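Re: [ENG-882] Designed sequences occasionally contain unexpected residues at chain ends

Forwarding the minimal case from QA. Structure tokens:
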């Protein structure tokens, strides 16, 4: 009986040490990530970044997305919902982290559409039709183009702009900034400069609410 009590006691001590160790490691990891973001604040937003929402909004969500990422497509309506619940208080800044093969060309499509004032409808169309132009996690920009035709774009001009040096340089800047901030998965969110550490709908909602109530 005594040995059993000692065994249970030792097991509980080990469990507590494991929990404490895990929490300490998590805290250190979060602090390291945030310190990394602080050092690279300039990489969070650029003059060329697409922004939607009030300019003086209390909360700024910076989202690094890959248009070929399924989770990005799934989260986009959720972010728009958060914004709709808090009109004038949240703005969204779109950044790119093209992690899927072919995604850079789809970003070029979006940026070329932006030159014609159709960025947001183009982004929503691209995300909503993702299954039509991605196969085995590879993006095919040629399949995207016909889907954008109903937006009234000049498709000849759009294809020419896709290859422009300004858009190609923009994409390279996006990739460099994503790397500088340690973005290795999409979507990745930063709320008022604070990185979302634990990914999920509730976690993002909590971080946004924290910023709203700060």
């Amino acid at each position: 009986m005594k040995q059993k009590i000692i065994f249970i006691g030792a097991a509980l001590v080990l469990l507590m040490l494991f929990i404490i160790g895990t929490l300490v490691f998590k805290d250190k990891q979060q602090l390291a990530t945030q310190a990394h973001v602080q050092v690279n604040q300039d990489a969070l937003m650029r003059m060329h970044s697409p922004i939607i929402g009030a300019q003086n909004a209390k909360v700024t969500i910076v989202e690094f997305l890959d248009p070929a990422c399924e989770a990005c497509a799934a989260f986009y309506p959720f972010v728009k919902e958060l914004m709709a619940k808090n009109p004038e208080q949240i703005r969204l800044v779109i950044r790119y982290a093209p992690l899927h093969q072919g995604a850079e060309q789809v970003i070029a499509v979006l940026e070329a559409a932006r030159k014609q004032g159709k960025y947001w409808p183009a982004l929503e169309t691209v995300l909503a039709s993702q299954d039509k132009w991605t196969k085995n996690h590879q993006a095919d920009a040629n399949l995207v183009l016909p889907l954008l035709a109903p937006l009234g774009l000049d498709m000849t001009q759009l294809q020419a702009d896709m290859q422009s040096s300004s858009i190609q340089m923009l994409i390279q800047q996006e990739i460099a900034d994503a790397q500088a901030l340690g973005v290795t998965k999409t979507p990745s969110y930063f709320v008022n400069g604070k990185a979302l550490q634990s990914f999920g709908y509730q976690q993002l909602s909590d971080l946004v609410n924290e910023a709203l109530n700060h």
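QA comment: On inspection the terminal residues look reasonable. The chain has two domains: 1-44, 51-213. Proposing we downgrade this to a documentation issue.
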